[in-house]
Design goal:
Blueprint: E1 13-16, E2 21-24, H1 33-38, E3 65-71, E4 75-80, E5 99-103, H2 108-116, H3 132-138, E6 143-156, H4 166-175, H5 178-184, E7 191-193, H6 229-239, E8 245-251, H7 256-269, E9 273-279, H8 281-289, E10 297-303, H9 310-317, H10 338-350, H11 355-372, E11 375-386, E12 391-392, E13 408-409
Parallel strand pairs: 8-9, 8-10
Antiparallel strand pairs: 1-2, 3-4, 4-5, 6-10, 6-11, 7-11, 12-13
Helix pairs in contact: 4-6, 10-11
Length: 410
């Protein structure tokens, strides 16, 4: 947006109070427009809502609950919205409980203990790795496991050495031990090795692994089997990049440290002089997006905004997603391939007329991208959530949004 102070939607949206309808006028067809409206970042607000932070006073909403108390340091209280009427159960169902109290500030360890003690009913964070065995053996009936549209990957900068060499990028994809990555995330029950850029659950996903023992981009296998260090070292020799320095920029938090050291060890085994530079995640994420920082390898993750292929492939690897000199450049690989861009654009356009064709094209785009190897997919994870004994009907979407209004207690 070039001039946000003077941005206006005049002419773009029409409202009719009499028929209670809203009409959006788009400049071009958008097959994902309704998905974006359903995303939790899109909210209907009164026209009088000020275009700035309203502080601790929440603007009115349209759901079954309203915020009656909010303190950013301690928590908030949601109570029934007296103006809410259920007009379509599938779109916006009525709630069950009379009030929901949300507490801020507990760490995941404290959250698990509080739920075990019956003090709380649900935790936002994932169950910590060191508590998985405990909750699985003693509280199995209160555990909920679900696959997220979330994965971790290593973005390879295709514009600077050594990963401006396709063979160097392919070598790291062949060499990485994805089984180890699964272990770092709690094991096979809660994590899956990932060998492609579309995760399980995304439209167009078809199991495929081009970089595993016995596979190639031309002849992928259905799933990852094991590293192929022999092929990886051969590609490094052919690339002429052996001996070069590679710095891994990784977040300090959680499981990133183990993943970063695995990447460092793998690079060293291929003949590179590898090191790890760690930063707090709030600093690392914008840092690795900015091309001025010349990041060779960024260890990061991506969670879909809503279930679509474009939120992974186009957002992370389309030419338009690379913005030089910007902290907001999600294409951290600085990758741009006009042919693959055209394929992704066709996949998006086909969704309006033929969803089947669209998914086929997204599958092709996924495999075309992996042939160019702008990143090393590592692992897709599952969320392990702990509920209290009295909690029922916990509904969670693919992109990790719990429907608080649908929680039931007894």
């Amino acid at each position: 947006m070039h001039d946000p102070a003077h941005c206006t939607l005049a002419g773009g949206i029409e409202t009719d109070p009499a028929t209670r309808t809203i009409i959006f006028h788009l400049t071009q067809p958008d097959a994902e427009f309704l998905d974006r409206l359903a995303w939790f970042h899109a909210a209907i607000l009164p026209a009088s809502t000020p275009p700035h932070d309203t502080g601790n006073t929440a603007p009115p909403g349209t759901g079954p609950y309203r915020v009656t108390r909010y303190d950013p340091a301690t928590g908030m209280v949601l109570e029934r919205n007296p103006y809410f009427r259920e007009w379509a159960h599938d779109a916006q169902p009525a709630g069950y409980v009379d009030a929901i109290q949300v507490t801020f500030g507990l760490d995941p360890e404290g959250e698990v203990t509080a739920i075990e003690n019956g003090q709380y009913d649900w935790m936002y964070e994932d169950v910590p790795l060191d508590r998985l065995g405990e909750v699985g053996s003693r509280y199995a009936g209160q555990v909920q496991i679900y696959t997220l549209l979330l994965y971790y990957y290593a973005a390879l900068n295709v514009r600077i050495p050594p990963f401006n060499s396709l063979k160097a990028r392919q070598a790291l994809n062949y060499a990485i031990n994805r089984h180890a990555m699964v272990i770092y995330h709690g094991g096979a029950a809660v994590a899956t090795p990932l060998c492609q850029l579309l995760p399980q659950g995304a439209p167009g996903y078809e199991p495929s692994c081009a970089y595993t023992k016995g596979a190639s981009p031309a002849h992928p296998l259905p799933q990852w089997q094991a590293p192929d260090l022999e092929e990886a070292r051969k590609l490094v020799r052919e690339s002429g990049t052996a001996g070069q320095k590679v710095t891994i920029i990784a977040p300090l938090e959680g499981r990133y440290a183990a993943m970063a050291m695995e990447l460092r060890s793998t690079l060293a085994s291929l003949g590179y002089e590898a090191s790890v530079r760690s930063m707090t995640q709030t600093v690392q994420f914008p840092y690795v997006q900015n091309s001025d920082n010349h990041v060779q390898l960024a260890l990061t993750g991506w969670n879909a905004d809503y279930p679509s292929a474009s939120t992974f492939l186009q957002t992370l690897f389309a030419c338009a997603s690379f913005r030089p000199h910007s902290d907001n450049s999600p294409n951290m690989s600085a990758f741009c391939n006009p042919d693959i861009d055209a394929l992704m654009n066709k996949a998006s356009a086909a969704a309006l007329t033929s969803p089947t064709e669209s998914m086929q094209r997204w599958t092709e785009a996924d495999r075309a991208l992996m042939a160019q190897a702008p990143a090393v997919p590592l692992v897709q994870i599952k969320r392990v959530s702990l509920l209290s004994k009295r909690t029922r009907n916990a509904i969670v979407t693919l992109n990790d949004e719990i429907l608080l209004s649908q929680l039931q207690v007894r």
